[in-house]
Structures are given as structure tokens and as C-alpha cells.
Amino acid sequence: MIGFIAYPLYYYRSMGVLISLLTAAGLVGAICKPSQSSNLLILFIVFFYLIMGSTRNLVAPYYLIPALPALYLIIGRFVTNTLEVIELKYKHINPICYNITLILFLSLSLFTPLHNLINHELSLMGKNTRYIAKDWIEHNIPSGVKILMDSGKSINSFAPPIAENEISLKRTIVNVQENLKNGIIQHGMVDSNALIYYELLLKTVPAISYDITSTMFGLEVESIDYYVDNNFGYFIISDMIKKSRTSPFFHEANPKIANFYQQMNHDPRLELIHTVRNSRVNRGDVFYIYKINSSSSSLGKAVEQDLKQFPGAHSNINDGMAASWQPQASLSVPACQ
Question: 3-32 vs 68-89: helix axis angle to the nearest 10?
């Protein structure tokens, strides 16, 4: 249901005040003075809005793209009709003043879309913050460590694309196999064919890889105590998800999840060791990297327990740690900006 509010807001932020007002006026005009073509456009827009607005997962600005041509045609029809009325009613209007007014109105209408377009193009000149975060993590966090990360249901969607280690991948495969055995498809991207993807990943695990647990876009989390007790080493948190999951509306419906994200700012066991920020030339989310200040001995016990569960992961993790992790040297690596 959030889409009914989100999509008008996405459109307003992308197009600005004037085009949004023209769109509203055009829709009202098309309804009040219907024609065969306008009726077809209105029907498409209404059905699109009802379908996309009612979805829970497909809520993003780019899902508006199929509706934009219809909206632009509605605007064009309204503007054309309005100009025809003005020209008929004010026949003696000064053509120079008339043309200057139209140019000014057109320029003001296009200001916000052009501003957004220029910012978007500039943001593509540098690395996305996902990859900046990936580089920093691989230089500063030891391979094989348990990480809780704000990411997706099957892949590292919207998250730093760090690799999962053998332990993490085998756990995912076992979960998918169990779901398929019970006739459960946990996500549209995770069915029997997805096993091939995970099996191929399992054969190509890189030296630097991690035992990653996803928050499922911040919807499946435990308490901080749980992660400390289970020897997680780091949290990689999305600013976008953190803000979304701590909003008053979300807190009222899901207090457990909201409390988890809110307590990060105050829990003495969590240390914010790095923040990856976006900029005009670095597009993407802001990522907070927290270190859990638990004893190294307990972390070692957890790794040993996991290795007993998945013996084949032992050589891979040891090789990765030997090849990539040097505690003293890592301190000299400059933080990514």
C-alpha cells in the first residue's frame, strides 16, 4: 500500500512543482472533457497506479517509467488546448511578450528535471558507494569474519558486493533445499534453478570472502545481544534502510526492528569504525560499518564451530586470511573517501 503515497512523491521530486501541477491539471482536464484517446490514457494510468500502488516490494522511482509517456501525452494535450484558448481569447496580445512568457514558463518547468539529470550524470563519473565500501571492507576487515549486512534476499542488492565464503554459501544452499523440499519458494528469484547459481559461486569462492547474514532489507533482524552472543564481528548498515526502519510509522508497526537500528547509536559494544558517504560524483547510499567489540577468543570459537559444520571451508578461509589479512599493515591503508 505504500506505493500509493510513494509514486506521487517520486514523480514530484523528479519533475518539480510546475510539471506536477501541469500533470494534475491535465488529468482533471482529461476526465472533465473526455475523448477516445484521453480515455485510453486515463485507463492505463489508473490501472498502472492501482497495480503498482498495491505492491509491497516493487516500490522504486524507476517503476514509474512505463507510465511516463501517458502522463506526458496528457500534459501535452492540456497545454495545447490551454494555448489555443489563450490565443482565441486574447487575440491582440503582444506576440513578443507572449513568446517570452512561454519561454520563461518552459524554462522554469524544466529546471528541476534538468537539475536532477545533471546531478545524475555527475554521480556516474566516480565509483558508486557500494564499490567504495567493498574496497574498504576488503582492506580492513579480515576474511572469514561473520558480518550482518543490510542486503537483499538472494544477492547483495543495494549493498557492498563483498563475496560470501564457503560457510555462508553452504548455509544458503541448505536453506534453499529445505524450502524446496517443503514446497516453499521464499522469493521469486530463489527457486530450484537458483541452486545452480549458488553451486557455481561455491566453486569460485575468492580468497577474500565473508560469512554474511542478510537483514533482508532490514526486515529480519534479531537483538544486538543475539549477534554478540553468536560472535558476529561487524555490522554493515545502510543509511537508507536505517532511516526507513526507525521512522515513527515503522516503529509503531515493528518495534523490535526499529529498536535494533536505534540501539546502534548507543550500545557500547558497537564501534562505528568507518562511514562511506556519497557525493556529487559518487552515487549511492551511505554505509555505516560497525565493529562489535567482543573478545577475539570467542570469535575464534565461533569460526571453529562453523568449520566443524562445513569442513570444506577450512582451507579456503585460511588461505584467504593468509593472503589478504595483515593486521599491522591494514592500519596504514587510507580510508576511502
Answer: 40
Cβ proximity of 244 and 179 under 8 Å? no
Cα–Cα distance for residue pair 121/283, rounded to 1 Å? 10
Separation between Cα atoms, residue 273 and residue 228, nearest integer Å: 17
In the chain the beta strands, taken as DSSP E runs, fall at 146-149, 211-214, 234-238, 270-276, 287-292
Q: How many helices (H) and strands (E) does the chain have?
A: 14, 5
Q: What is the pLDDT of residue 201?
A: 85
Concatenate the DSSP letters of all residues of 242-266 into one string: HHHHTSHHHHHH-HHHHHHHHHTTT
Q: What is the pLDDT of residues 108-166, one digit of tens each?
A: 999 999 999 998 898 889 999 999 999 999 999 999 999 999 988 666 668 999 999 99
Q: Sort residue 217 into left (φ over 0), alpha (ψ -120 to 50) or beta.
A: left
The burial of 42, by beta-carbon neighbours within 10 Å (0-12 exposed, 13-18 middle, 19 or more buried), is given as: middle
**DSSP letters along 163-218, please?**
PB-HHHHHHHHHHHHHHHHTT---BTTBSTTHHHHHHHHHHT--SS-BEEEE-TTT
CA distance 114 to 219: 35
Helix, strand and coil content of the chain, in percent to the nearest 5, comes to 60, 10, 30
Over residues 23-45, the pLDDT tens digits come to 999 999 999 998 999 999 999 99
Grid cell locating 89: 481569447
* CA–CA separation, 159 and 317 (whole Å): 22
Entry pTM:
0.67
